[in-house]
Amino acid sequence: MTILAPVAAWAGRLSPVRRTLAAMVAGAVGALALPPLFILPALPVALVILMWLLDGVLSRPRPHRAAFWLGWCFGFGHFVTGLYWIANALLVDAERFGWLAPIAVAGLSAYFALYPALAVLAAARAPAGLARIIALAAAWTLAEYLRGIVFTGFPWNPLGSVLAIHPALMQGAALGGAFALSFFVVLVAALPATLGGANALGRTGARRWYPTLAAGALFAFAFAGGALRLAGTPTVLPEGTAGADAPRLRIVQGAIPQAIKWRPELTRQHFGIYLRLSRDPLPDGGPVPHVVIWPETAVPAIYNGAPDFIRAVAQAVPPDGLVVTGVVRRDPPAPSGAPGALWNSVIAVDGSGHLLARYDKHHLVPFGEYVPLARFNPLPKLTEGRVDFSAGPGPVTLALPGLPPLSPLVCYEAIFPGAVTAPGGPRPGLLLNVTNDAWFGRASGPYQHLVAAQMRAVEEGLPLVRAANTGISALIDPYGRVLASLGLGQRGALDVTVPPALTAPPFGRFGNLPILVLAGFVLIAAGRWRPRA
To answer: Which of 290, 323, 335, 427 is surrounded by the fewest CB atoms within 10 Å?
Structure first.
């Protein structure tokens, strides 16, 4: 017997009320492993407690109903803690929306908690011990994928994102993506549950430590494998022809608070900030890079096709270069008088005032850019205006002078594994993420958003340029390493050289399908496995 066995027994005997509270606290503790805290030991503590609580409910009446409730309570505590920053968006205009802040955090967490509930329910059907732990890892993976697609999806903070604590640990995303990392993380973090509870299966002495030692070995193997992949890969481009020929660009971060961003009397001032940062010479007196990148909705005005708007943006274009910027775009009014469609777009403009390319965001933010089920939903849209944004057709690859073919991603489009490049189209050489994280202040949301971008870079084997209004703007290499960045609230510009793309890794070729098939097979096999008597 280990010292943890009495703790496991105690957890299994908790009353329903105390078990509910314990599950919520465990879920909250597990969220401490997420960015930006990265307190990794918190996750094994949380998942081991969850497994021990599950052992207890399965020996009582109505076990599967109790298992579902247990998983929901764990998920609720986890998401309230991990997504508290959502309230900041409602506090930007506190007079109108502040009252919604606690309702939004609690309501969204209650919905997202359904997915851990389904995962725990599926794991409960497997026999105690390794089979149940493996079943939880597989079911959690499938549940995270479902969370990423149902009702347009929100795959924020998959548990695999805790491995962004070190670049070596992220490299597995090149093989199976963020959901594969979640499978690995849940398995490794839950294996120590075999030190107590029904999962111990009567092991005695040193044998009881085998699964925990295996978890440590798996973690060490993942780190070593990632370190081996990174060995010899430079974090800066080497001097010489390759470095000279590599695309150079300037990322501009205006750091304009969301509360004043759209004030009409400040439009010229805010636009002037971006112009100045785009034109400032390099510290050594050298020329500005040929390509300037502005973030999402950098221009505090609506683009309706008027040439004056494009000419204004063109003032920031370097000689023989271009500006790529996020804009709010509106179509002309319909003949009936109805307002034209509204789009969250990315445009590229050259020095002559020509519109070179345009991309319309296709993955819209619920309540930020449209109201789901608006006909029946009394809740308002948080952004200005009553017209919902329209969705574009999907990912595209843009060919622009001075840049490799690029796939633009507006705001949280970068959080969707396997959905950041055009399916069946030419493979881009660069991911470009423009965003406005000013909505979320200095909370953990912008840090978590940056980690999502790092994961997409590893999965696709592509460098990623990130331009954010108030941070975190960054250059990320194809291995997920942040080579340069501007922090939250920091006004300035980054002049960077874009590293080359890698050959498409397995995830870049096959997407989420392999891990989903594997997780489904493992879940079925674990549910049917029966231990020897």
So the answer is: 335
User: What CA–CA distance (Å, rounded) separates 18 from 38?
Assistant: 28
CB atoms within 10 A of CB 340: 15
Residues 6+ apart with CB under 8 A from 521: none
Which of the following is catalytic: 361, 369, 381, 459?
A: 361
pLDDT of 108 above 70: yes
Least confident stretch, 162-176, 256-270, 362-376: 362-376
Across residues 321-341, what is the average pLDDT? 87
Q: Which among 517, 522, 519 has a CA at the least distance from the CA of 131?
A: 522
Local structure of 303: helix, strand or coil: strand
pLDDT in tens, 40-88: 999 999 999 999 999 999 888 889 999 999 999 999 999 999 999 999 8
User: CA torsion sign, 83 to 89 to 91 to 95?
Assistant: negative
Active site residue 296: yes
Which one of the listed residues 73, 144, 261, 296 is annotated catalytic? Answer: 296
Distance (Å, rounded) from C-alpha 442 to C-alpha 193?
36
Is 361 considered catalytic here? yes
- Per-residue pLDDT of 433-442, as tens digits, reads 999 998 888 8
Q: Is 460 a catalytic residue?
A: no
Structure tokens at 180: 């594969």
Starting at the edge strand found earlier in the chain, the sheet holding 473-476 runs 406-410, 430-435, 464-468, 473-476, 482-486
Is the pLDDT confidence value at 452 over 70? Answer: yes
CB 178 within 8 A of CB 455: yes
The pLDDT confidence band at residue 223, using thresholds 50, 70 and 90, is: very high
Helix axes 130-147, 114-124, angle to 10 degrees: 150
